[in-house]
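Recall the central idea of this unit: under ordinary conditions, the amino acid sequence of a chain determines the structure it adopts. In this exercise we apply that idea directly, starting from the sequence alone.
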Amino acid sequence: MKQNITLALDRELLVAARGLAARQGTSVSALLAEELREKIGDARRYEHSKQIALSMLEQSWSLGGQGMKNRDEIHDRTSLR
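Accordingly, the structure predicted from this sequence is:
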């Protein structure tokens, strides 16, 4: 169901919008509706990607490294005693 809204634009912007809409063979209303659909779609895709990235960050990743040695093993302090 479509619903009308009231939009306040500067006169210059409205004239430019009417010209753009006419060149594209559409109305200012349809032009604005399409632009809003694109922006909302972009925002939804961004949020979805963000949630995926955040969930990936919470997972542990094995990088193939070895366990950490303790300080004595690193400095071979056992041979000094």
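The chain has a mean pLDDT of 90.
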